[in-house]
Amino acid sequence: xxxxxxxxxxMAGLTGCLTFTVTYAIRxxxxxxxxxxxxxxxxxxxxxxxxxxxxxxxxxxxxxxPGRELITVLLFSAYTAETWWPLRLLIRVGRRRREGAKDIVxxxxxxxxx
Length: 114
What we know:
Helix content is 74%, strand content 0%. It has helices at residues 2-27, 36-61, 68-99. Helix 1 runs antiparallel to helix 2.
């Protein structure tokens, strides 16, 4: 019973990630690709979805299936890269503020920093 409860929770998480990424891609008409926040949201949800898929696969097939170690290393590398992404964005916004750049809407970036 406990095992099936965990599988259900994992499937709910995977479904939520898939629903968000598909809905966001359709509703934004691809505009998510042109903003830092959009790319971060999409990659974050996609990464979380792959984590749920990996957990679900391990729950259903066990931990002894072909390619598991390689896939695990690749996914964990992606998760690690994602944890550093916000720092990159923060540095980028600071640089834009110093240069007086404008964002996509035409508003000075520094107005968002307050």
